[in-house]
Amino acid sequence: CNYQTSSSQPPIITWRCKSYCRDPIQAAVNPSSADNIISQNNPNYDPNIECADSQRTVRTVASKQGSAVTLSSYYQGRKISIINNADLNIVQTAWGDSGVYWCNVVSGQDLTGNNEDYTELIVLERKSNSTDLLPGIDLLIMEDWLLVLLVVLGFLLLLLLIGICWCQCCPHTCCCYVSCPCCPERCCCPRACK
Questions:
Q1: % helix / strand / coil in the chain, to the nearest 5?
Q2: Residue 164 burial class via C-beta count within 10 angstroms: exposed 0-12, middle 13-18, buried 19 and up
Q3: Membrane spanning segments where (predicted)?
């Protein structure tokens, strides 16, 4: 928001985050959707950001009057501030910060310029280790669910190998048809039970 005022009383600047009406990434990969066709015919219409506030999440991010900046409770503890006249500064984005950020400048006296404007923010990948399974280890090559799946499959494979070797080395008769290098002299497969 760029504004000018000759008032001695500083205006109140408020930044709000409104979630997207629809996923802008999904809209980009599906250019033949009805909303995209409408927006191509009307360049002033953006279906990603133009919908009623009741259809999306709206949060106040921060407000500023003079040099005092106040963060809303949802954003407490984050490195967010309003710098210069009315620029929102987010030092580190978080998962879920994607949305349309609206700036509103209110003054009781003269105010020239644009008192309301917006900018868009898209967070593409989560980089926070706060919810990771292995917080001290940075595994950027795989997601947490893939790591869990690989560990479970490895455990099942280990049980299968132990079961095969146990069956091959047991002193009693069993029906194993897979040879195992654990103890070939004590095999109890059908060929050894003659």
A1: 25, 25, 50
A2: middle
A3: 145-164
Neighbouring residues of 64: CB distance < 8 A, sequence distance ≥ 6: 12, 13, 70, 82, 86
For strands 87-90 and 3-4, give the pairing.
Answer: unpaired
pLDDT one-digit tens code per residue, 113-141: 778 889 999 888 655 555 555 566 655 56
- Residue 189 CB neighbour total at 10 angstroms: 16
Judged against a pLDDT cut of 50, whether residue 193 lies above it is answered with no
Give the phi and the psi of residue 102 in degrees, each rounded to 5: -105, 135
Tell me the pLDDT tens digit for each residue of 129-177: 555 555 666 555 667 778 889 999 999 998 887 777 666 665 554 555 5
Number of residues written out for the chain = 194
Please determine, for residue 93, whether its predicted confidence score (pLDDT) is greater than 80.
yes
Residue 135 in contact with residue 144, Cβ under 8 Å?
Answer: no
